Amino acid sequence: MILYTGAYTEPGMGNARGIGQLDFDLDNGTFGPELGVTDAQNPSYLALSVDGRCLYAVDERTDGGVSAYRRDPDSGALVHLNNQSTEGAHPCYLCHATSGRFLLVVSSSGANVALIPPAEHGALEPPPTVLHLPD
Fold first, then answer.
1. Which end of the chain lies in a sparser environment, N or C, as judged by fewer CB atoms within 10 Å?
2. Band of the pLDDT at 84, cuts 50, 70, 90?
3. Which of 94, 38, 39 is nearest to 64 (CA)?
4. The pTM is what?
5. What are 9-28's pLDDT values in tens digits?
């Protein structure tokens, strides 16, 4: 099984290199060697698409965004598809709506919630709905 890790990459916040890919042995509960790292900026929260074909990562920065990656089903390697703005600073959480039609993205500093629709091939469309909360 392949596990993905996200962490802070920005100096002063962390020193990760991006999205890590690790082999995990389900039989004995051990991690194998790191399989690779995909460049990303502060990918502090990750979520797989409902069908498992894509991985989404928040870009926890002042100009917050979400990145979409296509996932190779055999190797787990990630290919960057695109980024989309969350219209709020420091997005810190994302999840799929039950239908899989939207990603719900919450920004901590930006005090907003964005609904971002993935296209059929997994890339992200601009958010049709952004709720800006009072500070």
1. C
2. very high
3. 94
4. 0.92
5. 988 888 888 999 999 999 99
